[in-house]
Write a structure and sequence with these properties.
heterodimer, A: 343 residues, Rossmann fold, Alpha-Beta Plaits, six-stranded mixed β-sheet, B: 309 residues, 11 helices, 0% strand, binds adenosine-5'-triphosphate, binds magnesium ion, ATP-binding (chain A)
C-alpha cells in the first residue's frame, strides 16, 4: 500500500506535482496516467525518496521509503530503462543490487531467467537494445520479490511479445496480492491492464477511479446530427433544453438524449436531417478530453482530442461526467477541469 | 523464513524454487500468498529469506561495482605500470649515471613515479561516483539503498582500501629496487621508519587523496568537471607559488608551496633535503591530507543528503 498525502514538488518556478493525495492499494494494478510532463516520473521519484517533496509525504506500508530496512524486498522499481552503468554486465548489475540488500545470489539467475536475458547475462548492458535494457530494469525490480512494484512506462521499447508479457506479468503480480503501480500515457494500454486509474495533469489529480467506473462514465455515448438547417436545429434543440455541441466539421453532437427522441423532435419541427447516428467515444478520447486543459506539450496541427466547442446551452459543459459516480478526494474527478471549462 | 542467514551459507533455500521458463508469469514461487481479489488487502509474502541490510552488504555491492567495470581495471593497471615502471626506469637511470644522491636516502628515487601514478587515483575516485550520475545508475543505487550516508561510506571504504592496497604493493616494489640499486649512491642509509613512510605512509596519503576525489565527484556530479578540479587542486598551488615573485606575498607563497600535494608527498621521501623548503616533517603530510579528506567528505555527505538524486 502506498499513500500519498498532499505531495507537492516545485522545481524553481515550475510546479511539477501539485498537492497529490491518493492511495495505491494492494491486489490490483493501478494505472498512473497523464500527458507528457504531467509529473508522473517526478511523483515516482518522490515515492522512492530520490527527490525530496516540497510539501507532503509518501508512506510505503506506513513507513517512509528511507526507513525501510531492506528496500528491495519491499519495493521494486523500474524508473529509466537505462539507469545502469553501460560497462557492467547484466549479471553483475543485478548482483550488486542483490548484495546491497542481502538477497541470495541464486536469485539473480532466477530473475534473469524470468525476463529472458539469461543468454546475454555476461554481456555489457551498453550493447543492449531499449527493450533489453527495459527487461534488465524489470529484472532489477523483481529481484527482491517485493510486495510493491512500481513501473515507469514499462512498455517503452518493448516488442509486441514483450508488451504482452509485461501485461500478464503485472496482472499476475497483482493477483498474488502485491501492489502494482504503473505509469503510462496510453489509455488503451491501461484499459487492458489496470483495475484502478489515477489520472494527473500538470501535477494535479484529475481522476482517481476504478477502471470499470471510468469506462462506464467515459465511453460516452452521444448522437451525431447533420442537417442543412443547422441554425434552426440548434434553436429547436435549445428550446427542448438539449445541449448540443458543433464539431469542427459542422456536425452536432448531443449527449444524454436517445437518437429516437432527437429524430422525433426533428420530425415535429419538419427539420431535414442528413445524419442521425448514435456514437461511442473511445477511452483514448475520454482521456484526452480529461487532460485536454493540462496538456503542455502538444503538436500544433490540431487541438488535442478535437475538443468540441460548446455552442448551445453552454452553461452546462457538454461532456461533464454523469453525476452519481465515485466520489474520490478533491470533490469528484474532473472537478478541476469542469471548473476551468465553465469559466 | 525471516531467520537471518549469512549469504554464503544457504544455497538451498532459493534454489529449491523451481526455475521458471523464460517469459513465464512469476506465479511459480512457492509459498505464494492466496491471490487477492481486487478489493482484498491481502499482502504478498515472499519465500526468500529476509534479513536487514547492513553496511557490509553495501560494501560488497560497491566492491562488485568497482571490479565489474573494465575502466577501473584499466586505470588501476596503468597506475601500477606507472609507479613500478617509471620507478624502475628512474632507479636504473640514477644507477647508470653513478651520481651521488646528496641529502637523501635511496628511497627518494620513488617519489616522482608515485606523483605521476597518483593522477589515476584522482580520475578513478571521481568516476566512482560521477559515472553513476552520468548513467543514471545513482537512482538505482539509492533505490536499493536509500540510506545515502551508507552508500557514500561504502564507496569510500572500498575505494580507500583498493587504492591503499595497490599503492602499497607498487611502492614496496619500487622501494626494494631503489634500495637494491641505489644504496651505494645515497648519502644516508634507509631506516625502518623511512621504509614505513614511503610505503604505508604514501599509500595512506594516496588513499586519502582518493577520498577527496570521491568527495569532489559527489559534490560536482560531473565527471570531466570534477577531474579538472582535482587536477587543478593538485597542481595549481605549486604553479601559482612559482609565479609569486613579490616579496609581500612571500608568506602566502610559502604556504601554497608547503601545502601543495606534491610537496606534501615529498616530505615522506625526504626528497627536499634538510627541510629547507618545507617546515613539515615526519608524518605531518598525513594529518594535513586527513583533515582535508574529512572536510571534503563531510561536504559530500551534506550535499548527498540534501540534493535530489
Ligand atoms: N530535475 C528537474 N528540474 C526541473 N524541472 C523538472 C525536473 N524534473 C522534472 N521537471 C519538470 O517537471 C515536470 C514533470 O516532469 P515528469 O518527468 O515528472 O513528467 P512525466 O509525467 O513523467 O512526463 P513523461 O510522460 O514525458 O515521462 C516537467 O515539466 C519537467 O520539465
Ligand atoms: Mg516520465
Amino acid at each position: 500500500m502506498i499513500e500519498l498525502q498532499g505531495l507537492t514538488k516545485r522545481y524553481g518556478e515550475k510546479l511539477a506535482v501539485d498537492g497529490l493525495t491518493c492511495t495505491v492499494r494492494p491486489g490490483i494494478v493501478t494505472g498512473f496516467l497523464g500527458p507528457n510532463g504531467a509529473g508522473k516520473s517526478t511523483t515516482m521519484r518522490m515515492m522512492l525518496d530520490l527527490d525530496r517533496p516540497t510539501h507532503g509525504t509518501v508512506l510505503i506500508d506506513g513507513q517512509h521509503y528511507r526507513q525501510l530496512k531492506d528496500p528491495l524486498r519491499t519495493v521494486g522499481a523500474l524508473l529509466d530503462a537505462k539507469a545502469m552503468h553501460g560497462g557492467r554486465s547484466a549479471y553483475n548489475h543485478l548482483l550488486c543490487l542483490a548484495q546491497s540488500n542481502g538477497i541470495p545470489r541464486a536469485r539473480v539467475r532466477e530473475v534473469l531467467d524470468t525476463v529472458g536475458l539469461t543468454a546475454v547475462a555476461k554481456k555489457r548492458s551498453k550493447g543492449f537494445s531499449l527493450g533489453m535494457g527495459q527487461r534488465l530494469g524489470i529484472a532489477g525490480a523483481l529481484l527482491g520479490d517485493p510486495q510493491i512494484l512500481m513501473f515507469d512506462e514499462p512498455v517503452n521499447g518493448l516488442d509486441p511479445e514483450g508488451i504482452h508479457w509485461i501485461r500478464n506479468l503485472m496482472k499476475n503480480l497483482a493477483a498474488q496480492g502485491r501492489t502494482v503501480f504503473v505509469s503510462s500515457h496510453l489509455m488503451s494500454e491501461m484499459a487492458l491492464t489496470a483495475d484502478h486509474l489515477i489520472v494527473i495533469g500538470q501535477g494535479r489529480l484529475l481522476a482517481d477511479t476504478s477502471m470499470a467506473d471510468f469506462i462506464r462514465q467515459n465511453s460516452r455515448s452521444y448522437v451525431r446530427l447533420r442537417s442543412p438547417e443547422i441554425e434552426r436545429l440548434l434553436d429547436v434543440l435549445a428550446g427542448a433544453g438539449i445541449t448540443a455541441v458543433t464539431t469542427e466539421d459542422g456536425h452536432l453532437e448531443v449527449d444524454g438524449t436517445e437518437s429516437a427522441q432527437l429524430g422525433e423532435l426533428a420530425a415535429r419541427h419538419k427539420l431535414v436531417l442528413h445524419e442521425l447516428s448514435p456514437q461511442q467515444a473511445s477511452l483514448e478520447e475520454a482521456f484526452m478530453q480529461l487532460t485536454a486543459e493540462s496538456v503542455e506539450y502538444h503538436a500544433h496541427s490540431a487541438p488535442p482530442g478535437g475538443d468540441p466547442r460548446p455552442v448551445a446551452g453552454a452553461d452546462a459543459p457538454p461532456d461533464a461526467p454523469p453525476d452519481g459516480g465515485a466520489a474520490p478526494p478533491g470533490g469528484g474527478w474532473g472537478a478541476d477541469w469542469r471548473k476551468k471549462k465553465g469559466s | 523464513m525471516t531467520t537471518p542467514q549469512p549469504q554464503a551459507a544457504h544455497p538451498a533455500a532459493p534454489q529449491t524454487a523451481p526455475q521458471a521458463p523464460p517469459h513465464a508469469a512469476p506465479g511459480y514461487w512457492p509459498g505464494t500468498a492466496p491471490a487477492g481479489g481486487p478489493a482484498g488487502p491481502v499482502g504478498y509474502v515472499s519465500p526468500i529469506p529476509v534479513r536487514k541490510a547492513t553496511l557490509m552488504d553495501a560494501v560488497s555491492a560497491e566492491w562488485t561495482k568497482i571490479r565489474s567495470v573494465r575502466s577501473t581495471i584499466w586505470t588501476l593497471s596503468v597506475m601500477v605500470a606507472i609507479i613500478v615502471g617509471i620507478g624502475l626506469l628512474i632507479a636504473a637511470g640514477v644507477d647508470a649515471s653513478g651520481s651521488k644522491m646528496t641529502g637523501s636516502t635511496a628511497l627518494a628515487g620513488g617519489f616522482f613515479s608515485v606523483m605521476l601514478g597518483m593522477i589515476c587515483v584522482l580520475t578513478l575516485g571521481v568516476l566512482t561516483i560521477s559515472s553513476e550520475y552520468g548513467t543514471g545508475m545513482i537512482r538505482t543505487t539509492l533505490t536499493a539503498c536509500p540510506d545515502r550516508v551508507r552508500v557514500l561510506t561504502a564507496k569510500a571504504i572500498v575505494f580507500f582500501a583498493l587504492t591503499f592496497a595497490i599503492t602499497l604493493v607498487s611502492t614496496a616494489l619500487v622501494a626494494m629496487f631503489d634500495v637494491a640499486m641505489l644504496e651505494d649512491q645515497a648519502e644516508f642509509a634507509a631506516s625502518g621508519g623511512e621504509w614505513l613512510k614511503v610505503t604505508v605512509g604514501t599509500s595512506l596519503f594516496v588513499g586519502l587523496l582518493g577520498i577527496i576525489s570521491l568527495a569532489v565527484g559527489t559534490l560536482l556530479r560531473h565527471s570531466a568537471g570534477a577531474i579538472t578540479v582535482m587536477l587543478g587542486l593538485v597542481l595549481a598551488p605549486l604553479v601559482v607559488a612559482m609565479f609569486m615573485y613579490t616579496e609581500s606575498l612571500s608568506s602566502v607563497r610559502k604556504a601554497l608551496f608547503e601545502y601543495s600535494i606534491p610537496m606534501l608527498l615529498s616530505v615522506f621521501y625526504g626528497a627536499s633535503g634538510e627541510s629547507s623548503a618545507t617546515s613539515l616533517s615526519g608524518w605531518d603530510p598525513l594529518w594535513v591530507i586527513a583533515i582535508a579528506a574529512a572536510v571534503a567528505l563531510g561536504g559530500a555527505y551534506a550535499s548527498l543528503l540534501k540534493r535530489d538524486a
